[in-house]
Amino acid sequence: MRWLSSSWRACGSSMVVVSFAACMGQTGGSAPATTTMASSQGQTEQVLRGRAIVVSNACGDCHGQGGNPAGPGWLAGWKSPQQDFPIGPFMTRPRNLTPDSATGITRYSDRQIFNALRFGLRPSATPDVEITSSVPGQGNHPAKPNYLAPTMPWVAWRHMSDADLRAIIAYLRHGLKPVSNKVEDSQAPPDFWASENTAEKIGPYPVAPHPTANEVAGQGDQAKVLRGRALVITKDCAGCHGGGPNPLAKGYLAGMTDSTGEFKIGPFKTRPRNLTPDNTTGIGRFSERQIFNALRFGLRPGETPDVEITSTTPGQGNFPAVPKYMAVPMPWPTWRHMPDEELWAIAAYLKNGVKPVSNKVADSEGPPDFWASEYTVAKIGTHPPAPFPTTNERAR
Ligand code: HEC
Ligand code: HEC
Questions:
Q1: Any residues with CB less than 8 A from the CB of 395 and at least 6 apart, and which?
Q2: Residue of the nearest CA to atom 14 in ligand 1?
Q3: What pLDDT sits at residue 3?
Q4: What would the DSSP string read from start to end of 99-121?
Q5: Among 82, 139, 151, 269, which residue's CB has the most CB atoms within a 10 Å radius?
Q6: Ligand 1 centroid distance, CA of 120 (Å)
Q7: Which atom in ligand 1 lies closest to the alpha carbon of residue 148?
Q8: What is residue 309's predicted lDDT score, i.e. its pLDDT?
Q9: What sign for the dihedral angle of Cα 80, 120, 142, 103?
Q10: What is the C-alpha separation between 61 and 333, in angstroms, rounded?
Q11: Whose alpha carbon is nearest atom 11 of ligand 2?
Q12: Is the confidence at residue 31, as pLDDT, over 50?
């Protein structure tokens, strides 16, 4: 499971904050000059689209500051060994995604970053060529690929459209200020993770059509169900909830099945739940509105009344006075930034597009405040996110 790490917390909302203000004056690479108003407006739209994807796709959960572009260290990467993600004996380290010329992504071309997100190929160790196959040795895919560590969920990100990947790249390159932060290289096995990235393990690209054996068609609004499916795959929900971003996989979305799927957050064990519509062990018991409220407000569907909520302040607008939040590391502080229609589409897919699987997941453990102190505005930022550009960002 890609998101698993005993040190998740160090990289999540509580990522150690170090001020890089002293380095912020350094400039990154030179950006290409835009020639006409039309193209610069087109680029601004692309940058904003990329920002919306990055903010709602949990990139910052590992690369810095969750879903909060105003937070110090936004996307600037790993800062100390406390933020290592161990995969077996190997320490892996989320890299600096800001456009710094010495330590960030300015060293790579747009195409190299694209190849990292679509094919998982390490930009510093992969030639800058167009790649047309995901099979090593074919269509310019290196015969001996140097893959990014499995911590990085490119296996899910690769299912985004070309346009979405290009928008992410435009935002990283043109919408962020450079931050100088040298990230130590990740450790890797001699095959650079190739044996983790076989078609059997990560599923086909493109993804298998709906419905696979784990899914059902014909229930509810099909366009909405398919939209929700694409989101569930490209947000890597199943990276924690079972099976990975491959609807053909055994246990797809059925929740953790043994202790390897469990997170250790300080003294507490937390457990990704069964998201299939089983009535007793899955989300069959909840309404689409309860699933919406879980994703927008972080409220546990089993312990929150099925009502419309219109405020994020406890006690106001139907927000519970004593909220029962979902355990860390469920990335709802970033999922909440999806537009309403995307959250409703996810709820529709989970309720109507997936086959029920009976799998009882033990309750997560947690502190008496149900994680409320982890989800303050100071720690997770505001909803909606601070407007562009924040002090970490630049408009052109
Ligand atoms: C669960 C943690 C995690 C999440 C979430 C995540 N990454 Fe990463 N990412 C990593 C790690 C770890 C590495 C370093 C891998 C290595 O060194 O082999 C990495 C590497 C990268 C690289 C390669 C950079 C370089 O200098 O080699 C890019 C580009 C990247 N991530 C972009 C993204 C984007 C865009 C998102 C959101 C859509 C994202 N990442 C979400 C953990 C994550
Ligand atoms: C990094 C791991 C991780 C990822 C990625 C993740 N989740 Fe979760 N999720 C969890 C954990 C852990 C819990 C259990 C929280 C608790 O018990 O309080 C959970 C709980 C939930 C619940 C509540 C279910 C219930 O029965 O109470 C829903 C709904 C949910 N997740 C949906 C999603 C969706 C949709 C996505 C993708 C957009 C997603 N999750 C991605 C870890 C994750």
A1: 44, 175, 388, 389
A2: 94
A3: 61
A4: --TTTSGGGS-HHHHHHHHHH-B
A5: 151
A6: 9
A7: 18
A8: 98
A9: negative
A10: 9
A11: 272
A12: no
Q: Which residues contact 279 (CB under 8 A, 6 or more apart)?
A: 285, 356
Specify the ligand 1 atom closest to the Cα of 53: 38
Q: What's the pLDDT score for residue 17?
A: 21
Going by pLDDT thresholds of 50, 70 and 90, the confidence category of residue 194 is very high
pLDDT of res. 38 = 62
Euclidean distance between CA atoms 350 and 109, whole angstroms: 38
**What ligand has the least distance to the C-alpha of 281?**
2
Query: In the predicted model, what is the mean pLDDT of residues 18-40?
Result: 35
Report the residue count for the chain: 396
- Distance (Å, rounded) from C-alpha 267 to C-alpha 280? 28
Instruction: Give the pLDDT mean for 62-81.
Output: 96
Q: Record the tokens describing residue 333, joined without a space.
A: 């502080």
Give the burial string for 279-313 (b: 16+ CB within 10 Å, else e): eebbbeebebbbbbbbbbbbbbbeebeeeebeebe
Q: Give residue 37's pLDDT band: very low, low, confident or very high (50, 70, 90).
A: low
Hey, what are 252's tokens? Answer: 């797809």
Band the pLDDT of 253: cuts 50, 70, 90: very high
Per-residue model confidence (pLDDT) at position 4: 52
Q: Is the pLDDT of residue 42 over 80?
A: yes
**If 0-12 CB within 10 Å is exposed, 13-18 middle and 19+ buried, where does residue 368 land?**
exposed
Q: Where are the alpha helices (DSSP H) in the chain?
A: 8-11, 37-56, 59-63, 110-119, 154-157, 162-170, 199-202, 222-234, 237-241, 288-297, 332-335, 340-352, 377-380
Q: Phi then psi for 225, rounded to 5 degrees?
A: -60, -45
